[in-house]
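Hi C.,

You asked whether I'd gotten around to modeling the 295-residue construct. I have! Everything is below, sequence then structure, no commentary in between.
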Amino acid sequence: MKRTTFAILGVALAAISLPGATQTAADKPAAPPVFETKKVEGTDNVYIFRAGNAQSMFVVTSAGVIATDPISYARREAGEMYVQEIKKVTNQPIRYLIYSHHHFDHIAGGKAFKDAGAEIIAHEKVRERLAPLKDPYTVLPDRTINKTTPIQLGDTTIELHYLGLNHSDSTLVMRLPRERIIFTVDTIPVGSIPGRGMIDSYPLEWEDMLKKVLAMDWDRLIPGHPGGRDARTRHDRHVSARDRAVHRARAEDGLGAAHPRSSRSAGRTPRHQAGRAGPARLAALRLRDREGRGT
């Protein structure tokens, strides 16, 4: 499979339908439903469950269902709704729930799946991060892994790949080899900047992880956030504004391209980085901070 680094920065952007520049209110499509389940085109057994601006993949096999991320942070009822949506598709039991990583906007609500009899699987760091929180709705994993692990259920194999540090230290990339599909959350986005908050991300290692993903054998990617019809326009606007601000900052301060002092960005907030920066550099940092809060 031939891909370029450009694919890392804007996966599937070209496939997004964009509204016209002069679109009127009457032309705009109706807002999507809060909860929605759709079969992935070209497959017999792969589905996407969407709750607001988050989505998960589930796979129906001959011996049960493999589900991912409960996505119940914004709406507590989403976990139970997710289970009910699976039951509309199949009468097979839910055997596994796989957490993509430890961030609550994706894995809150695992209790509904535990109550349905699922075994919960995650990277070992997920247990470490969740245990102190003692959230009864977000169940600790029953099984943890720290390396690439295949899960076989009936006629289906799903591979859980740990590819190192990136958006978090606990991210699993899930690959369906027969269907040639990967499910990856918050690492390769559709129509937005990945992990703009960079709260506990590892930017340098993230690049290495992306190269590993591109080297894998897959044709289609399901992201953890669906992206919007105007995602490309919003993305271009953010990047253009950011680049202008950074260009002014560099010109004012007489500095070249910035290099992080640490591979991890945790604790390196704009306030910490500002130091003796001039007004233009402060403006650039504030813009980046504002983008991050919009994640």
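If it helps when you're writing up: Residues 1-23, 231-235, 257-295 have pLDDT under 50 and may be disordered.

Thanks,
B.
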